[in-house]
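QUALITY CONTROL LOG
STEP: pairwise intake check
CHECKER ROLE: data steward
CRITERIA: each record must contain a sequence immediately followed by its structure tokens, with no blank fields

ENTRY 1 OF 2
RESULT FIELD BELOW
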Amino acid sequence: MVIMPIVQAAPVLLTRTLLYTAMTRAKKLLILIGNPNIIEFMIKNVDSKKRNTGLEYKLKNLDF
């Protein structure tokens, strides 16, 4: 079960991708709590930013 509070935040954080993540993590039940207008905004917000985590660099430079 996933319970996700939906609160007003920076638009860059309120993305469709975040909702998708919650939906795919919820095996049996997803509960969204919050403003329906914000949820609608998230559904329509398809902007995604490239994440610079450095993971690729770290994996390529592992010492075994």
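ENTRY 2 OF 2
RESULT FIELD BELOW
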Amino acid sequence: MKTAYFIAQRLIRRESTEKELSKPIVRIATVGIALGMAVMILSMGIVRGFQHEVREKVLGFGSHIQVSNFSSGVRYNDPRLEIDQEFYPHLDTLKEVKHIQQFALLQGILETPDQIQGIFTKGVTHDFDWSFLQKHLVEGDLPHFTDTTTSNAIVLSSYLSKRMQLGIGDRVTVYFPNPKRNMVQRNFELTAIYNTGLQDLDAQFAFIDLQHLRRINLWGLQAQMRIEGCEDNCVSLRALGFGGDTEHRFLWSADSLRGAGPHQFCIDSSRDTLIYAVLEDRSETIADTAFFHYRAKNSSVESPADFCEAIGPQIIYTSGGSERYYTGGFEVILRSYRDLEHMDRFVYEHLDYDLRTTTITQRSPEIFNWLEMLDINTIVIIILMIIISVINMTSALLILIMERTQMIGILKAMGGRSGLIQGIFLYQAAYIIGIGLILGNIAGLGMAFLQKKFGLVKLNPEHYYVSEVPVLIQADQVVLLNVATLLICLAMLLLPAMAVNSVRPSKAIRFH
């Protein structure tokens, strides 16, 4: 093969300096391969870019994997789930996991004086990753939610804000259904407006503080205490309970007492006294406690009247309600979409029996099936371009063989085998294909870079979900495409190269 390679090099140099019949044909074949490669790179890059952009927008609303209660049967209304889980928040220590966060979803009705609109409110808290909405923020400032306070901020899409004629700072009224089958009103302040271009989801989602959904859904218990009366150094206390399954029971600091009361407690006015009532229900909701704390003053209380007067400023407080210990579920954001199936199996295997995982492809199958179908377009374009390249190279190779008929005859007369002579022309073909691939890569990658950098080709986001043609070039796919094109073209050229076998030395030399 060294001899074939040497002769092929000499022929290539000669063709570049001398006028040959095959020269324009070779140039046409080279340009054809270059154009084909550029088209393949651009088509693959545009399809991958479009898939990536739409996928990222869908993931921005729902993450890669959601962990929820196994009894959840409604797509946008999950039952409560305790935050205290073995995987939270330690799951993000895995290299495949970028972030894990709490969330809850609840249907609601957005109302203004002139319009009403059904929406899904997504409750988020301090651990929410705002980077997606920050990227698509149009107006206002994204809120900062905490575990210690409840924020009335709401984030709407530009589609909803325009439809409802709302602006930054406006009051937003939303009605929610609660477990008692009543409609609960909540008033919010519009603090930020986003626009992803994915109108199907922009028209649905609003983001609020998770604490609102916890209270509306009655996920936790909230105990309170009230002073009913005071007489003869004794105070009457009534316990109040809210939330849970509403079948409340109270455990007092005095074990003999039962029920909400009121119960009477006689207090030594010279000593600090703490009385508490623990609120529980029958659904094993995390309990909450209300406290009455009598703090004795330095000066002695001389009469029952003085005691009852001192009761007034005593402190009644609670442990804050147990709803803060619950969430609707957890969202797992991965670093790469490629790890979705693997990490879904891994997370599910490490969950308790009553928990489940759902992937983004399971929650939005219609979108992801559509995105996968776009791969067919790329495959068809690549196949067509390779066929065109093979046809061009076949024509060019046959002309090269015809033009070198005398050389073939001389080589055969000198004892050269057909395999050696075929190798000469295949080396020439590989050179032509290589030049075409290089030029095609330069053209395709160059146009892809310009489009990604400057966004030269614009699109209507209402129809295409993106404002400009997206391009995503992956180096491994480009290399694979080049190698596959080269090998397929050379393999297909083995057949026309066999035309060398039909050349007879005697006729070839006499013809010259």
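INTAKE CHECK: passed for both entries
DESCRIPTIVE NOTE, ENTRY 2: The first strand starts at residue 65 and ends at 69.
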